[in-house]
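Q: Sequence in, structure out?
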Amino acid sequence: MKLLKNPRLMLIISMVVFGSLGLFVRNIPLSSGELALYRAVMASVMIGAFLLVTGQKIPFAKIKKEIPLLLASGVAMGFNWIFLFQAYKYTTVSVATLSYYFAPVIVTVACPVLFKEKMTLKQWICFGMSTLGIVLITGIGDLSRGSSHLTGILFGLGAAVLYATVILINKFIKNVDGIHRTFLQFLAAVIVLVPYVLFTSGINLGTLNTKGWVNLLIVGLVHTGITYCLYFSSLKELPGQKAAILSYIDPLVAVLVSVTVLGEDMTVPQLIGGVMILGFTLWNEISASKK
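A: Exactly. Output:
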């Protein structure tokens, strides 16, 4: 009960759990599409149960005009997961996660086009330095890493573009609360991922051993269902600046898991690149949350 009354601790726990996602995904021998589908299904069930228990009704009459936007963002979210899981398969968890965290930079650049906002000098600096960070992470000129590494980064950046799409679409959704929005997005993801999986990899749950099942349940129920409930519950109580700072626990944990638990290497230029992406993106987000 004390946990539910401490939003800061709830957000920290959420970010630590999110940061360990790659460790569990690595132990599930399913296609990225199939894994994304099961994650969306289990998360929908968990969050639906949470809404039911807490008595949080979805105002369908009020949000019916925004259902197309919710559907579009759910589709983007589902394929965002597919791209991220693919990134884990081709490169290290740390590099995949840092590439994925380029999403806020994409949002910053897209907002002037979509919302007629002007980019400040600080935003241009953050964009330029974060982009340079991505260049350092790719290890351009280091042929020893092979094409698989670059493919993983491209999948990570693809996931970042899709996640940025989710964020931008959400800016147009005015009448749906955070956790209601995520629940409906997960349902939309299930709707679009079912035919995608059936026409690509098919259903292969029968091939999972005990280890695979345990990791799948952890990813679906813990990393997505329970943790999203904690995450959105904490955001209601925390100021934007504090939430922005604490959200960077996620990539830091991912890097630590990658290097210490999975034993994946990380070069000095990649480390510098990661610090540049997270540091300048955080600097930009903090200034935005103050406004």
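The mean pLDDT is 82.
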